[in-house]
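Please, structure for the following, as tokens.
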Amino acid sequence: MDPKICISIGDVRFDTCLKVAALSPLIEVRLDQMHLDVEKIEILALQSRQWVATCRPGNYSEYERTVQLSAAIRAGASYIDIEYEADPAYRDRLVDLARQQRCKVIISYHNFESTPSTEFLDEIIKKSKDMGGDLVKIAITAHSYADCARVMSLYEHHDNLIAFAMGEKGKITRIAAPMLGAEFTYASIDEAHVTAPGQLTASQMEVIYSILESNLKR
């Protein structure tokens, strides 16, 4: 068992981001929270082994987000994350550039309110792949363990999927996701810098996986 942990970085000092990038096999950089110019994105890329470039809407215009994500792709980002609901013209420009630079595309769907039906999520996954997603990220909100089971059941019928539940009840799905087929799972630098509800820290995840691995060897 060797689950890959992606440390999600947002709203920290640039020097802290560089240190985490240098020490971690895989990071996600929340460009919408980091406020990096193109030069700093290029410096970060030199420090990173593998990294996901994400720029959520809200703090920047669509043009500014295009500039930042394009810079990340050209600098050598391993993945870019594009929202399922994104404008098709914005999405297609980034997907085309990513293809030219051999950067994988993650199409991500987030639901911060509830867990939709399996049929609804199946359709989201299909459409995301049609949009050019090499990987599809499904992050929903669980209010019960039945919600967690529903999102985990997606792995039975889909590949190239990163699916988990947000919120307190969803923590178990973040741990289970790589064991069921996810390319990686997300974690925070520490408890003060979580980037999504229910996110565990990287050190917590490492301890959990170490305990699980030692028990599996018995």
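The mean pLDDT is 95. The chain has nine helices and eight strands.
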